[in-house]
Amino acid sequence: MFSMSRSAAAEILAAAERSDAAGLALRIAARREADGSIGYGMGFDDHRERDSALEFAGLQVLIAPPSLPLLQDTVLDYVELAPGRFDFVFAEGGAPAPEPAPGGCGSGGCSRCGG
Asked: 25-32 and 38-45: which strand pairing?
């Protein structure tokens, strides 16, 4: 089943407030690309008749039937990819991306971030 980290849900709810999309659900979509990889998309939307509806930390998430098998065991996370640069990532396999270490970037190998 698709899941979402708390940090991703919190950032999406904050984005909804900033963009006047408060109260709308988040639609998650996936499709198989020509090279066999999976492409992901998301945006605020209204519920449609055949959607599966999930809830994460107060955020309603909608998934259309064609995307369900491609999102099986996928986690949407919001992580720091580089110092000060955060973004959403889709992690396949059901494991969320590791949380950064307190006080640092999480790499554990540099003196700049206290890791």
From this structure: antiparallel
